[in-house]
Specification:
RagB/SusD family nutrient uptake outer membrane protein, SusD_RagB_dom, 525 residues, Serine Threonine Protein Phosphatase 5, Tetratricopeptide repeat, two-stranded antiparallel ribbon, 8 strands, membrane, SusD-like_N, mainly alpha, signal
Length: 525
């Protein structure tokens, strides 16, 4: 793989200069115009828009042209697609039958420092951090109401990207200014403190819950990310912070956000709200998608097309069917712990599971992924759809309208439940109520108490294929270094085998190590 760079042009209409040459994350970002006589122009609103757009677009010209990140197929350079692949394919939930470069290594937990998805996500996150740094530098000192609000959101977005760097890469370069200097490498705990501080301070001036424009972050987004940060504090810093995780989860639960009455509506084309679909009352931070105006081969199109094929499956609202991602049997068994899942269509499986979240398609499928290269080997997961709940037409027959629910209220319920159980050394009535609230929404049987193992399974049932499973397994001690929990093809062995604890972190990309002497690779790589 050639050296990655952040390509020129953050956004043509916003900046008159190129931002190129990033081969050592943001440290080598050269923002000096080639011609010193060129005047740098800054369009505040357009750069602010680009900060959000980096989550849902891959470049300046649509799905294939002038991508933000060099050295990687533009479609795979999408923010959420990269996160999804690295947090799902490496776990007990998803397996991809494609032989594309980088995919088998994720399927079989065999990646290294030159892995293209590892490198791609690293540069995508630092591209986003750099954009936020640039915006904050250019607006420093502005006190008008709109600038104050935008700066708070930019700080939140920078913290969000640093959260993913902490979670996935651990000890990484730390930069808050656009500079040509090679950045130093910060300890994971130091980055944790930075993200915590940024979120706490930004939330003070962010808009109140549900008062900001849909698609923009508000106080609830900051609180929910804080709850997630605290829930994983023991992993990130060595010190648990269960009480704070529960506190901030409860703050989110107490807002005017409310659970979508229908689970599957969260993942349909009108999840931004319609006469029928009320999912937008639950979605706290979406990645906005519109088939007519925000086209790319990541985001919701990836979620839908990669889990479907155009033949022998029900309509799902797009002509694209890539037939790639399917379920490992362990995910299906979360819904069928004591019985066999039927090889049937989705409605029959939901009825048999007695859980609306069992959105599997098993007709002409095998439960076991016996043939790793065959899409029909393994159940399909049809959670995501470009159909509208109200039956209306979507904006495009190919590209998707479904917004990706990056942060949603249900996370607060499970965070509160888990943190409370851990804090109290066992189930509490409040924790049980929180879990049962979600299970009632799914028309699933409620229980009188839940153990931590039950809660881990509930995370999977509620959030399967939403790009977070790896983090949950690590927090529960069931990922790298664990020998007591295996899944099919874990460690590259069909029946599953353990792999090294060092794989709980992704490596610093080899490219960055080669050009920045301040960086040290994680042990084990």
């Amino acid at each position: 793989m050639k050296r990655n760079t952040i390509k020129s042009w953050i956004i043509t209409a916003a900046l008159s200069f190129s931002m190129s040459g990033m081969v050592s994350c943001v440290g080598d970002l050269d923002v000096t115009p080639i011609d010193p006589s060129v005047t740098m122009e800054f369009d505040q609103n357009k750069v602010f828009t680009k900060i959000y757009a980096t989550m849902g677009l891959t470049g300046l010209e649509g799905p294939a042209g002038s991508g933000d990140i060099d050295g990687l197929d533009e479609g795979t350079s999408d923010f959420f697609r990269l996160i999804w692949n690295m947090n799902e394919l490496s776990t007990d939930e998803a397996h991809c039958c494609w032989g594309d470069g980088g995919i088998p290594e994720l399927n079989y937990n065999a990646w290294g420092a030159s892995h293209e998805y590892v490198t791609g996500l690293y540069y995508r996150l630092y591209f986003n951090v750099t954009l936020c740094n640039f915006f904050l530098e250019q607006t420093e000192g502005k006190t008008d109401g709109e600038s104050v609000a935008q700066r708070a959101e930019a700080r939140f977005m920078r913290a969000l990207n640093y959260y993913y760097l902490i979670d996935m890469f651990g000890k990484v370069p730390f930069v808050t200014k656009v500079s040509t200097e090679n950045p130093s490498q910060a300890e994971r705990a130091e980055l944790f403190q930075f993200v915590e501080k940024e979120l706490l301070e930004a939330s003070e001036t962010m808009k109140d819950p549900r008062t900001n424009a849909y698609g923009r972050a508000d106080k609830a987004a900051a609180w929910l990310l804080l709850a997630r940060l605290y829930l994983n504090a023991e992993v990130y810093t060595g010190t648990a912070q269960w009480a704070k995780a529960a506190e901030y989860a409860q703050k989110v639960m107490s807002t005017s956000y409310s659970l979508s009455p229908v689970y599957k509506h969260l993942f349909m084309a009108d999840n931004n709200g319609s006469s029928v679909n009320k999912a937008n009352t639950e979605i706290i931070l979406p990645i906005l998608q519109d088939g007519a105006t925000t086209r790319n081969f990541g985001g919701s199109l990836f979620l839908i097309a990669s889990t479907h094929k155009t033949k022998d499956m029900p309509a799902y609202g797009t002509t694209e069917g890539w037939a790639g991602n399917r379920c490992r049997p362990q995910l299906v068994k979360k819904f069928f712990p004591t019985s066999d899942a039927p090889n049937a269509e989705t409605d029959q499986i939901i009825k048999a599971a007695k859980d609306d979240r069992a959105l599997f398609f098993g007709k002409d499928r095998t439960l076991s992924v016996d043939d790793a290269s065959k899409f029909e080997s393994g159940f399909s997961f049809v959670k995501f759809s470009n159909l509208r709940a109200d039956g209306a037409s979507t904006s495009d027959s190919k590209h998707a309208d479904m917004d990706v629910p990056l942060l949603r209220l249900a996370e607060a319920y499970l965070t509160f439940a888990e943190a409370t159980v851990r804090q109290n050394g066992g189930a509490t009535a409040a924790a049980t109520d929180a879990i049962n609230t979600l299970r009632k929404r799914a028309n699933a049987k409620t229980e009188t108490s839940y153990t931590l193992d039950h809660i881990l399974d509930e995370w999977s049932r509620e959030f399967a294929f939403e790009g977070r499973r790896r983090s949950d397994l690590i927090r529960f001690g069931k990922f790298g270094g664990n020998t007591n929990y295996v899944w099919q093809w874990k460690g590259g062995v069909k029946d599953g085998t353990s792999f090294g604890k060092h794989l709980n972190l992704y490596p610093i990309p080899e490219n960055d190590l080669n050009v920045n002497n301040n960086l040290v690779q994680h042990p084990g790589y």
